[in-house]
Design a protein that fits this description.
alpha/beta; 8 helices; 36% helix; binds zinc ion
Length: 214
């Protein structure tokens, strides 16, 4: 019986397009951030809070919203004056580099310095697909429990920054920040780990810095 390794070739092709996205953005002086996390981890609220910080020039930011069917998150971005494009995957559970290539070609990138991909809420296959990002940010929340890094290692292995969101709710959970941080570092010694509350607008300084960094 003949077996064909479809996944590998699909991923190889994806990585080629991702490398192209990354290079063409870098040539234009644009950095792309891929924001990953579970549904309800607070990625869009985090973006809203960070991008309305008075130090951030919202004309220099564009957002690609990934969603299965709706445009709810894109509408939230447009309400705060961010150039946004919605990618509806019609049920597909992750974004691939060719979708980002397409979105970038449709976005007006004049004056833009940072593109953010608000990825589909999912920790499994979203992490397998490099999209051409220069920086990967993983968002977890204390209400999801402590076991995320060891259960979904790929996201944490590949993230440059890991945010533990909803830290204001920690007293109502058994979440252990130290253990979570140790687990992340056992997978990826270089990941920067921060706690924050996007809802309360607290602890967001390291994320704001990512946008201010030239
Ligand atoms: Zn998927």
């Amino acid at each position: 019986m003949k077996t064909i390794a479809v996944n590998v070739s699909v991923l190889n092709k994806n990585d080629e397009i991702a490398a192209k996205n990354k290079k063409s953005l870098a040539e234009r002086g644009i950095r792309m951030i891929n924001l990953l996390g579970t549904p309800g981890s607070g990625k869009t609220t985090l973006l809203e809070q960070v991008l309305t910080d008075p130090r951030i020039d919202r004309r220099r930011v564009a957002v690609i919203e990934g969603d299965l069917y709706t445009a709810k998150d894109a509408e939230r971005m447009e309400q705060i004056g961010i150039r946004t494009i919605q990618l509806n995957t019609e049920g597909a559970c992750h974004l691939e580099a060719d979708m980002i290539e397409h979105a970038l070609s449709e976005l007006d990138l004049e004056g833009v310095e940072t593109v953010v991909i608000d990825n589909i809420g999912n920790l499994v296959c979203t992490a397998e697909f490099m999209l051409g990002e220069h920086l990967r940010v993983g968002v977890a929340s204390v209400t999801e429990g402590n076991d995320k890094p060891l259960k979904y290692p790929l996201l944490f292995q590949t993230a440059d920054v890991v945010l533990i969101n909803k830290i204001d709710l920690q007293p109502y959970t058994n979440f252990d920040v130290e253990r979570f941080t140790q687990d992340v570092h056992s997978l990826n010694a270089n990941a920067a780990v921060y706690t924050c509350s996007a809802f309360r607008g607290e602890g967001l300084e390291p994320v704001i810095e990512l946008f201010l960094k030239k």
